[in-house]
Amino acid sequence: MISVILPVYNAGHYVKDSIASILQQTERNIELIVVNDGSTDNSEEIILSFNDERIRYVKHETNKGVAAAFNEGLKIAKGDYITFHGADDLSLPNRFERLLAEFCCEQIGYVHSDMLLITEHNSPFSYWQAANISPNDIYSFFLNVGTPFNNGTILFRREAVEHIYFDESIKVGSDTDFILKVAKEKWRSSHVPEPLYIYRRHQANITKNRSYEELARHIRLNIQDEDLMSLNEVNEKGEENNLLTAKLIAGLALSRRWMKQEGFSLFHEAIPLVKTERDRHFFEGMKGLVENNYRHAVHHFQQITDRNHIEENYLGEAFLHMKNYNTAYEHFIKALQLSPNYHTPVKNLKIIGILKGYNIIDKHVDHFR
């Protein structure tokens, strides 16, 4: 059985269609846990208008927030699989059937899909594609990009989320924080490259209206030293000063996004960890990347004569920023020769290829351009 947890807060305009899309699934063995999180509109009236024994209704007298509503659902869920659904979003009729079919082995803890974005007036406007990510690379993806999946699309195996709850202190990003907790258990994922979930974006759920503190809180909670030391490329380094490397890699990743404050803070924390001349050159090289001073970065990385795979990769990134693609390519290949399972230079080779010419095998869209 699948437990679908649906928080509702003043979603009267959309919740009827959302509930209907769940109840009309081709996979009938579900329970729909609707948590009315203190709605003051007609949401309750709409919810209670459904006469289906698969619905379990929970009501909060006051608004506690989506994380609290998810947790309420988790505590009472009876299903072998669990998913979280937005009250203004829709599921395609065979979504659960398609996702269930991907649980082909015990190592798969969650399955996810692509999603189509629509406006509040049901107008499609964007497509979000996801991909499979190795459990060892999810934290790096989180630092460099953000949420590793289309979070609303995920169906979890019950064992993968056992005793894991949403952090109710996080106003934005509690779902990403939750997924990182699951990912730390090293469950593998499976991806369905179809828009099985339709996400409705409207003014009430656009995060750009949130404060910086709200947006950054879940990041700060996940860049503690023990988190940073889980970076796969740091674990492969096999040297003593790995925390220095971890802080600089994470600091660079965050500074490339909108979180320069957190990125610079990690660089500041790294200063006391600089112990040797090699450390100093690596610090200055990474600092050059953060400051967009790529010649400075190249100079300091090149002062390290016996570069390891990490130093080769970031020297390559400096040349990549300078659009010296051939030299960048040579350093990424060298990094992989030193450490064949190091994923970051593989990602950078992909970037070079995309910048030079991007081709998609799926040509269906060409007929409609």
TrEMBL record:
PROSITE patterns membership: TPR
Protein origin, superkingdom: Bacteria
UniProt entry keywords in alphabetical sequence: Glycosyltransferase, TPR repeat, Transferase
TPR repeat spans: 309-342
Gene Ontology MF terms: glycosyltransferase activity
Similarity field: Belongs to the glycosyltransferase 2 family.
Name of protein: Glycosyltransferase involved in cell wall biosynthesis
